[in-house]
Amino acid sequence: MAISKDVLKVQPSATLAMSSRTNALIAKGIDIINLTVGQPDFATPKSIQDAAIAAIQSGKASFYTPAAGLPALRQAVCDRIAIEDQVQYDPSQVIITTGAKFGLFLLFQVILNEADDVLLPEPFWVSYAEQVHLAGGNAIAVKTTGKDQKVTVADLEAARTPKTQAIVLNSPQNPSGLLYEADELRAIGEWAVAHNILIVADDIYSNLVYNGNQFTSIVSLSDAIRQQTLLVTGVSKTYAMTGWRIGFVLGDAAIIKEMSKVASHATGNPTAASQYAAIAALNGDQSEAKAMRAAFEDRLNTIYPKIQALPGFEINTKPQGAFYLFPNVKAAVVATGYANTEDFVTALLDEAHVAVVAGTAFGQPDHIRISYATSKEALLTACDRLADFMASHQ
Ligand code: PLP
């Protein structure tokens, strides 16, 4: 069977694979606590659901929309970014995409030529590298040596080549939950401007920041940095709308136009009903989004000390955002006698009935990713199970 060489090189998403393995065990009736998930466990707020239902019932969701999205949604994105990041964009600088994931996919298709390099500071979200490969580029994992293992200009300079076309920055970060501070972002932004390297700023978790920490978007730091940046975000995480598949990319109007051209031949447009729902999410009352953020903060504060106290689990800095912990478990793997993190994770699933993802998929094989996007009760039980597992395997 003829299958493209480029596609054969792509790895399936490790997080989705672990999640489906977990769901298969749950379907068999096994009481697994699933901490692999990358999505809020809340239902989409009712006012947003109602907007979609009204759009369907009035008939206006029955039709194709422009490839770049409904004008009212592009405007709503500009208005929300102006409120949250104090940065003005024009709707011509916005494309609505089928999730931020497809926005990133389109972006790499548009900005990369064969064998261009894209720098990915470790740890990085699983899909970036594969999307870069699918666009013909090279994904370059960058070792990070800064505060809390964040990337520094020196780290980036060590990885830069004449083929470096872009860097992907994700703050708050999946899988570590770390947040880049304004000074760190400014240094990276100025470096990118100086070397004419595009910044892909994945701000998808920008509204999930906890315990008084402040989110800064790199686009808010200077006009030069903003002009060098493609800002990727969406409604999935903030409004519990992962299933609706609506993301946005904001930046240079010429790049956005090319992305719209590619989208017009791919998806055509993101689902109309979802776009109407997203308008309601962005323009409407933000109190439910705030309540969900507060629930995540409470869960982080509950689970963090318990995970930190597990023997052989090391987290140096309390995460400030997203909904993941990313402990280094090398000592736990050694103490329990497993050959590697994958085997350790499999044993956690089979014996402790707790599902997590091995860090290999994020470029850091000594770590595991624990999602706390589930109830506090389930999280507390999972912590007890992990503690029992560690106690019985020493
Ligand atoms: N970026 C990061 C870092 C993510 O974790 C995710 C989802 O897991 C996405 C982008 C994509 O979000 P969506 O496609 O649901 O908008």
From TrEMBL:
Protein name according to UniProt: Aminotransferase
Boundaries of every Aminotransferase class I/classII large domain copy: 31-386
Ranges in coiled-coil conformation: none
One GO MF term: pyridoxal phosphate binding
Superkingdom to which the source organism belongs: Bacteria
Organism: Loigolactobacillus bifermentans DSM 20003
Family according to the record: Belongs to the class-I pyridoxal-phosphate-dependent aminotransferase family.
EC number: 2.6.1.-
Pfam families per the UniProt record, alphabetical: Aminotran_1_2
Keywords: Aminotransferase, Pyridoxal phosphate, Transferase
